[in-house]
Amino acid sequence: MHEDLANPHWWSNAWLKHYRRYMSQPSYQAYYLYCVLPKGVGTILELGAGSFRDVAQLNKWGYHCIGTDFATQAVEIARKLYPRWAQCFQVEDATALSFGSEMFDLSYHNGLLVCFNDNSMIERILQEQRRVTRRWMVCTVHNALNSSLKCQFAEKAKHDPLYQIRFFEPDEITELMRSLCSRIDLYPFGSLWCNRLIKYSRNRFLVRWYYRLTYRIWQWETCERIMAVGWLE
Ligand SMILES: C[S@@+](CC[C@H](N)C(=O)[O-])C[C@H]1O[C@@H](n2cnc3c(N)ncnc32)[C@H](O)[C@@H]1O
Predict the structure, then answer these.
(1) 41 lines ligand 1 (CB under 6 A)
(2) What pLDDT is stored for residue 194 in this prediction?
(3) Could you tell me the residue range of the domain that residue 194 belongs to?
(4) Cα 89 to Cα 184: distance, rounded to the nearest angstrom
(5) For ligand 1, is residue 110 a contact (CB within 6 Å)?
(6) Which of 70, 75, 91, 132 to mutate to test the pocket of ligand 1 (most atoms within 8 A of CB)?
(7) What is the pLDDT of residues 125-170, one digit of tens each?
(8) Domain count of the chain?
(9) pLDDT value at position 229?
(10) What percent of the chain stands above pLDDT 90?
(11) CATH at residue 166
(12) Residues 44, 66: contact at Cβ < 8 Å?
């Protein structure tokens, strides 16, 4: 784990360098979230939104989604890129959010917890996420069972600290969320065929149909991430 990953100034510079590459990819988290989204979700919050592409996508689909990040530059780039939803993007530290208790039906983050080696930091973020969320909290983390992905990241990390992240086993993320949730469901995120369907069809209904039909037989060892859905009621 690289200590820079916990520094908002480092991330502001990193986003100047990386946002074009992120923007060239589909908003995978928005699609995978849509595949498992429970009925009755209206308001959504993203923590550590980075490129803000998923928040923008969810808003396009009609959800009321607020995106936050502690890197000022990330928020400024996103406001320029998506002027229609600029007022939905805010600078916020995930350990001390300005929102009132249980303001959002659902909250999520993707690739945020992987920035921290220290479980006490992760616990602070999860407690704050729980405080502002009414019904479901979603945590997407990189999958430690995928050894080929870990090798690819280790190689890239030699040149860029962005890739020096923590990977999680399914039990590890479950354990971290356990005291805050009444139930936790783990979903696979990022298989070759589903990613291709997202990339080439961009049809969320088709993607959800395919996901629900097949996700139970996906091999964890080949999935990129683990999407942990915690139930709060
Ligand atoms: C790997 S990036 C997430 C990328 C994002 N999911 C996307 O698809 O664009 C991690 C993000 O978490 C943010 N971050 C790290 N620590 C944070 C904190 N304490 N509060 C808010 N944001 C934080 C970083 O600024 C960075 O944008």
Answers:
(1) no
(2) 97
(3) 3-231
(4) 28
(5) yes
(6) 70
(7) 999 999 999 999 999 999 999 999 999 999 999 998 899 999 999 9
(8) 1
(9) 98
(10) 89
(11) 3.40.50.150
(12) yes
